[in-house]
Amino acid sequence: MNRIVLTTMVSLGDLHPPIAVGLGLRDRGHDALFATHKKSGCKELFQLIDLG
Description:
- With about 50 residues, this protein is an alpha/beta fold.
- It has one domain (about 5-50).
- The chain is built from one helix and three strands; from the N terminus they run E-H-E-E.
- A three-stranded parallel beta sheet has the order 1-2-3, covered by helices on one side.
- Helix 1 links the parallel strand 1 (about 5) and strand 2.
């Protein structure tokens, strides 16, 4: 399927909707990645592209 990069630079509470979208995309066979800061907590769920 497709590789999709989701990005956000906000607080952890604001990450929950994009994380849900990423999980849904992954469940449908897409490769979902997050481009955000290291402290986001996404690295346990997704491949993380660190934006600093």
